[in-house]
Amino acid sequence: MAKRIMVFLGVGIILLGLIFWSSPLFFLRLFFKEGSEISLNSGQNQILNKKNNLNNMVDYKKILMVVAYSNFRDEEYFEPKNIFESNGLIVETVSSKTGRAVSTDQNIIEISKTPADIDPDQYLGVVFVGGLGMTKELDNPSFKKLAKDFYSRNKLVAAICIASALLAKAGILKDKKATVWSSSMDQSAIQILKENGAIYEDESVVQDGNIITSNGPQSAKAFGEAIINYINKNY
């Protein structure tokens, strides 16, 4: 009898030992399994975050162009636009109203947004296009506000031909080097720059910080290339 009792006690002790030994192992296995899942989920989240950041970068490669609703200069719009797009930028165009804007050479572009629809944080910069129509927009409050909004966010602000005078009237060329359209018979745009504190330079393209200006259609290609160079260096 005593031997049986001892055998039962021995078996019981062994079983208890197995139970207490296996329980920690179970919890350890559970812990490491959960830890692996957490690590895996963390890795997946990092990949998703990187993918989202890349998508944001793609979305962010947009540049805004501003034209007069009628009589914007063809070379000053289409030449820089082609340069922007060939370098992977998305170009959006706004005007004083939506509809079909018409160039000096009767080319038509569709306008779906006005300055009121624009969030500057969604663009690398803004480019104001010149032409006869822009001479009537130099005091357009929505155009001037757009220039100031981009400038205040340290975004690229560019203008070609007479549109440089709009930047001057917007108050962002004070103590800045800039150029503008002029002729031997008409120096009024140069006077607008000087009256608003700009430092006029008789050059085809002038850059001062985040502001790039050009003097007319003959410089449209160099103007577009200067903008691309600025973007490549700063973004």
Helical run tally: 6
**Coarse shape:** globular
What is the structural class? alpha/beta
Oligomer: single chain
Largest sheet: 6 strands, mixed
Strand order of the largest sheet: 3-1-6-7-11-10
Which sequence of SSEs, written as H and E, runs from N to C?
Answer: HEEHEEEEHEHEHEEEH
Q: Give the averaged pLDDT, no decimals.
A: 84
CATH class of the largest domain: Alpha Beta
Strand segment count: 11
Intertermini distance: 90 Å
CATH architectural arrangement of the largest domain: 3-Layer(aba) Sandwich
Stretches with pLDDT under 50, minimum 5 residues: 1-5, 13-58
What does this protein structure show overall?
It is a single chain. Helix content is 49%, strand content 18%. It is of the alpha/beta class. It folds into two domains: 1-59; 61-234, Rossmann fold, CATH 3.40.50. Helix 2 runs parallel beside helix 6 (220-234) and helix 4 (163-169) packs parallel to helix 5 (188-195). The chain is globular and about 35 Å long. The protein starts with a helix and ends with a helix.
